[in-house]
Amino acid sequence: MTPSGTVPSWSGWGDPARVPTLPAPVLTLLEQALGVTPALAAAVAMTGVSLPEPDLPGGCRDELVALLGAEQVRDDRESRIRHTRGKSTSDLVRLRSGDAADAPDLVVLPATHDEVAAVLRSCAQHRVAVVPFGGGTSVVGGLTPRRAGFSGAIALDLRRMDRLLAVDAESRTAVLQPGLLAPQAEEQLGAHGFTLGHFPQSFEYASIGGFAATRSAGQASAGYGRFDEMVVGLTVATPQGCLELGRAPASAAGPDLRQLILGSEGALGIVTAVTVRLMPAPAQRSYEGWRFEFFSDGMAALRRLAQDGPRPTVVRLSDEIETAVGLARPGQLGSASSGGCLLIAGYEGSPPDVTARREAASAVLAGCGGEPQGDEPGQEWRRQRYAGPYLRDALLDAGAFVETLETATFWSSLGALYGAVRTALTEALTAQDTPPLVACHVSHVYPTGASLYFTVACAQADDPLAQWQRAKTAAGDAILRAGGTITHHHGVGVDHREHYAREVGPLAVDVLRAVKGRLDPAGILNPGVLVG
Amino acid sequence: MTPSGTVPSWSGWGDPARVPTLPAPVLTLLEQALGVTPALAAAVAMTGVSLPEPDLPGGCRDELVALLGAEQVRDDRESRIRHTRGKSTSDLVRLRSGDAADAPDLVVLPATHDEVAAVLRSCAQHRVAVVPFGGGTSVVGGLTPRRAGFSGAIALDLRRMDRLLAVDAESRTAVLQPGLLAPQAEEQLGAHGFTLGHFPQSFEYASIGGFAATRSAGQASAGYGRFDEMVVGLTVATPQGCLELGRAPASAAGPDLRQLILGSEGALGIVTAVTVRLMPAPAQRSYEGWRFEFFSDGMAALRRLAQDGPRPTVVRLSDEIETAVGLARPGQLGSASSGGCLLIAGYEGSPPDVTARREAASAVLAGCGGEPQGDEPGQEWRRQRYAGPYLRDALLDAGAFVETLETATFWSSLGALYGAVRTALTEALTAQDTPPLVACHVSHVYPTGASLYFTVACAQADDPLAQWQRAKTAAGDAILRAGGTITHHHGVGVDHREHYAREVGPLAVDVLRAVKGRLDPAGILNPGVLVG
Question: Could you give the residue range(s) of every CATH 3.30.300.330 domain in chain B?
């Protein structure tokens, strides 16, 4: 169910009722500036989806039914379609065309760590690939198993493991099950007076286990940290046994193995419990807008705040293009902008803390050339903070191609990385006769550097998958040449695997394969993801 | 050389001239309360040390000379003795008795990453164990290789790799070589206006590479963070090739492999460069003392500061015993104390930041029952902050046994952990007719928990090594039963290996062995350390 109680879209994002109608100026812009022509065919209905016959060793299915009960082992058409791939634009394009070739043979819904462990042992024995499935919001192919070499593939859906297991108010920690979705986690922690403070754009549909597996970073990372900074303990089921990691806030007892599981994307084990550190639920929230004439001025201001403080809870800076087309404010897409670059600063905490940080940060922003735009742009951003993916659905419906990608590097390289990725995307798509609009924002800042998040929109070519693949490869190549990381918060999945291997080098890949070989000798855990 | 230019002690800590003379009341306390009798024998002179004949395959030595030059391949008596073991009390007791059975056959001094890599390849081929040697300050047996199964053992001394390679003032990062000692690093970074902010008790003799390899935490961790939080990049030489880790402040590109090397204690590779994040050198430092009636009150105050801020740069709280005997102020050991528990709070930064944090933190401390003691105790602590190990040398000279150990856990378990370790140490040593004095302080605080650092003093039994082994095992057992980590900042080495394996479990040990098997198939890197 979506938060409003409707049935979620299987071929788009979340609640279908929230897909906006594009205003006329946007349609005109798409047509005149990008050459977008209306889509030839709407997305197919679910009944029109082409689904392969389930093909799993009979003994495996029987074992899974014996372990979990028939009700929790599903191979009905809808269950399989709803566990096919994630939510990248390429995923959606294929689903909209009725292609569910990557559907799992079966969907299983274990309810406990021991059930997860038993499923893994059974699948290892039968050489059946296992794709852990939380919110299903991967945008990097993290839910598309490689089937070659396996006798079948199942989705291991964690939705029944959705409880807040314990709160330690004195230590400010909580133990969460992996299938708990972020909104429910916030609601339940809120009842204890706490917040996790993790609000990625996928917030409404993403799960705690997914945050851990993908090393997620939320929109409020400046104030609350990245998810990997929030995790103090992990329980992990693997085909070879259980890992229990994290006995203290910090330790010198060997390498920090929590950080080996965080970001392992289901390829090393399945996270069955996460102990997180909590923050007090904020009594006050204050969001506002600032205008900078140039992106570089705004970046300099962000650097000042990140290095010398005070840090806002949320800080994000749109470049000139993103500001001009209103992508920073999806609810007002296409409406007039005052030019320059829009910066959103949000402050959450106790009233005196919010006042003090806002005052001090405002002085820094003004000192760097920022012009205050009042609260309205901040409040508008906050209202629309999770709406971006709905806009994508509307643009796909209109015949456009739109996708995002992101990276990060150190401050001294950030400007060059920005230019390199913009150029690569523009050239790769222009060469295909689909010149793009490339917009960017900075939304995660650190003392030593920051992230860059790009949104690309263009006309769909005849083969949009190949079209995007060429652009994406060019962008990845540019990122590596400029010294950036191939992904700051989306993860590696299948889509980034080759660039990831180039980023960390063959010896690091071999190290991860050695770890996988020990924990998952049959290689059944999310095959093809991360290190293949 | 020591900072004052004298020759460092080979069987004690640092500069022999700084070993204090114990005041009469301390000697009386030792004798009357602990039953310490004057030492039967003083430490032997270096000439009295018993050293095994060097025993290395001739081909290996020739190769190393060809690689590094004869001057950088040393097997003279003094070089070998000075690379025998680290600085734990057990290490010193053995050295003081003239036992250098663990001396390396050879000491090599490479000057570059490529030379380190070549040494590793040669030693792998000849099955010669390699012990990376930075400052030599390990207190957990991290420099004592297992020789069984190897044709020899060498110390790989990194002192010639002692340069600051690069400073990126915009990103606030610097690239340091591993053999750079902490004081020189601070001095060179200070010339650029920066500080690393890492000040462990071993500061005067410890190296950057050692900090990385052991996941070090300094006395100012509340303000500047732990060393593992300071590292943004690592270059690592292994027998199988090079790892280059860290392209961005944060990334979702797979597990954070930097955190697999940090804390690997030379068992997975040799760190040949460390990129660290920098902080502005503080313009002002302000240190002061507070008194709490009970340790538990002080711990509650620390928790308030750690969770709700503001965080002092340094914060440490001595328990009633440590306060009473003046261990918090080694320079005034044995002088009268006003009872209760001494808390030291230090603030470093810009003058307005120091003023603001000190005022706000003081309000918290006073609100929790703290009584301000003025600046003098803080300044005294700062002057004496690295003096603890000299006091140990004096106590050993006087015939006492003194050693430290440390742990950490979450706030809700901290009181129970404190009691459990105190009881275990007291019972284990009392059972040996050497009832101890057990003192403790908290010196590292986090939002979710804190560390505990114990100092134990008692009379030396006839076999002090066995005496301490029994006490240490009892303490380690108590730590694990109480849910703590076996080490918060000393590392695993050889001494904690068994408890470490129990802490993380056999599957985690196997994971590390799989990583080691890939990076170091001949197992030559610091054998016996961490996972054997």
Answer: 388-495
Chain A residues lying within 8 Å of B242, measured CB to CB: 505, 507
CA A323 to chain centroid = 22
- Tell if the CB–CB gap between B263 and A252 is shorter than 8 Å: yes
CA distance A132 to A142: 9
Query: Minimal CA–CA distance to B449: which of B347, B235, B311, B306?
Result: B306
Test A515 with B511 for CB contact under 8 angstroms: yes
User: Is the predicted pLDDT of residue B473 greater than 60, yes or no?
Assistant: yes
**Mean pLDDT, residues B459-466:** 95
Instruction: Assign a CATH topology to domain B388-495.
Output: GMP Synthetase; Chain A, domain 3 (3.30.300)
Long-range (24+ apart) CB contacts under 8 A made by B183-187 are B183/B3
Confidence at residue A442, expressed as pLDDT on a 0 to 100 scale = 98
Q: If we measure between CA atoms, which residue out of A470, A473, A469, A465 comes closest to residue A502?
A: A473
Check B170 against A228: CB less than 8 A apart: no
Query: Mean of the per-residue pLDDT values for chain A?
Result: 95
**Residues of chain B with C-beta less than 8 angstroms from the C-beta of A249:** 408, 410, 446-450
CATH pick for B164-280 out of 3.40.630.30, 3.40.50.2000, 3.30.200.20, 3.30.465.10? 3.30.465.10
Residue A523 CB partners (closer than 8 Å, separation 6+): A149, A516
Whole-number pLDDT of residue A39: 73
Residue A515 gets the label, from left (phi > 0), alpha (psi -120 to 50) or beta, of alpha
pLDDT band for position A80 (50/70/90)?
very high
Tell me which residue of B327, B293, B309 sits closest to B453, measured CA to CA: B327
* Total CB pairs under 8 A between chain A and B: 270
What is the band of B257 on the pLDDT scale with cuts at 50, 70, 90?
Answer: very high
A138-142, A472-476, B329-333: least confidently modelled range: B329-333
Confidence of residue B333 (pLDDT cuts 50, 70, 90): low
Q: If you search the block for the tokens 């000439």, which residue do you land on?
A: B47
Tell me how far apart the alpha carbons of residues A318 and A295 are, in angstroms, rounded to a whole number.
7
* Yes or no, beta carbons of B247 and A409 under 8 Å apart: yes
Euclidean distance between CA atoms B152 and B126, whole angstroms = 9
Q: Mean pLDDT across the stretch A504-515? A: 98
**Cβ-based neighbour number of residue B350 at 10 Å:** 13
Of the partner residues A215, A249, A518, the one whose CB lies closest to the CB of residue B408: A249
The strand pairing partners of B400, in sequence order, are B459
Is there a contact between A500 and B172 if contact means CB atoms under 8 Å apart?
no
Q: What is the pTM of this model?
A: 0.97
pLDDT of A247 reads 93
Domain B40-157 has CATH 3.30.43.10: yes
Q: What would the mean pLDDT of A401-406 be, rounded to a whole number?
A: 97
Neighbours of A388 (CB within 10 A): 17
Q: Which two tokens stand for residue A430?
A: 């222009």
What are the residue ranges of CATH 3.30.70.3450 in chain B? 284-383
Q: What CATH number labels A284-383?
A: 3.30.70.3450
- Best mutation target among A120, A167, A171 (most B Cβ atoms within 10 Å) is A171
pLDDT value for B334 = 52
Both structure tokens of B496: 């904690």
Q: What is the complex's ipTM, to 2 decimals?
A: 0.96
A340 near A319, Cβ under 8 Å?
no
Chain A residue numbers with beta carbons less than 8 Å from the beta carbon of B517 are 514
Residue A58 confidence (pLDDT): 82
Give contacts of B512 with chain A, Cβ < 8 Å: 254-255, 257
Of A454, A446, A368, A363, give the one whose Cα is nearest residue A410: A446
pLDDT digits (tens, 9 = 90+) for B344-394: 999 999 999 999 999 999 999 999 999 999 999 999 999 999 999 999 999
Q: Would you mind telling me the total number of residues written for chain B in this entry?
A: 532
